[in-house]
């Protein structure tokens, strides 16, 4: 990678407030994955954590903050543990992966779902890879 700044957003969500174990486990997995990304070195890593927030909509404080930074061109990649952490709505996920992220040049990676939009071929494909638990 060249010397252009690269920023990775780690997005973590837990539906009910808990003792932090689920959040800590998500953070650990995301950090390890980000550190292992050979195509990105010396990236700035930002964390966005919505604890106690439903995934039914994007009406979450840290999700909105992250999306605002995407609109400002300050985030290059969003990394989640699994797709349901970003949203439980198939429509919202499809909108993000088909329109919003490509419009803003954002790479989206879901570790558990083995999804990396940089590796999708042919543009539209989000509905082909949506995990069964989302449908």
What structural keywords apply?
disordered C terminus, globular, 135 residues, 5 helices
Overview of this structure, please?
- The protein is α/β, with parallel strands linked by helices and 135 residues long.
- Helix content is 36%, strand content 19%.
- It is built from five helices and five strands.
- A five-stranded mixed beta sheet has the order 2-1-3-4-5, sandwiched between helices.
- The chain is globular and about 40 Å long.
- The N and C termini lie far apart (37 Å).
- The model is unreliable at 131-135 (pLDDT under 50).
Q: How many helix segments? A: 5
Give the C-alpha Rg: 14 Å
**H and E string:** EHEHEHHEEH
- Percent of residues in beta strands: 15-25%
Low-confidence region ranges = 131-135
Structure classification: alpha/beta
Number of strands: 5
Sheet with most strands: 5 strands, mixed
Query: Terminal Cα separation, in Å?
Result: 37 Å
Helix content: 25-40%
Shape descriptor reads globular
Q: How are the strands ordered across the major sheet?
A: 2-1-3-4-5
Overall average residue pLDDT: 86
Task: Show the helix and strand layout.
Elements: E1 7-14, H1 21-36, E2 44-51, H2 61-71, E3 77-80, H3 83-86, H4 90-103, E4 107-110, E5 115-116, H5 126-129
Parallel strand pairs: 1-2, 1-3, 3-4
Antiparallel strand pairs: 4-5
Structure, briefly:
By secondary structure, the protein is of the alpha/beta class.
């Amino acid at each position: 990678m060249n010397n252009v700044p690269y920023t990775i957003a780690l997005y973590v969500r837990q539906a009910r407030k808990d003792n932090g174990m689920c959040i800590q486990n998500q953070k650990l997995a995301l950090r390890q994955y980000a550190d292992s990304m050979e195509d990105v070195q010396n990236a700035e890593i930002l964390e966005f954590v919505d604890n106690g927030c439903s995934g039914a909509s994007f009406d979450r404080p840290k999700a909105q903050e992250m999306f605002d930074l995407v609109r400002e061109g300050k985030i290059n990649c969003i990394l989640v543990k699994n797709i349901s952490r970003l949203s439980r709505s198939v429509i919202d996920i499809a909108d993000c992966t088909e329109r919003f992220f490509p419009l803003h040049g954002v790479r989206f990676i879901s570790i558990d779902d083995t999804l990396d939009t940089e590796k999708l071929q042919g543009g539209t494909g989000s509905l082909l890879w949506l995990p069964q638990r989302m449908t």
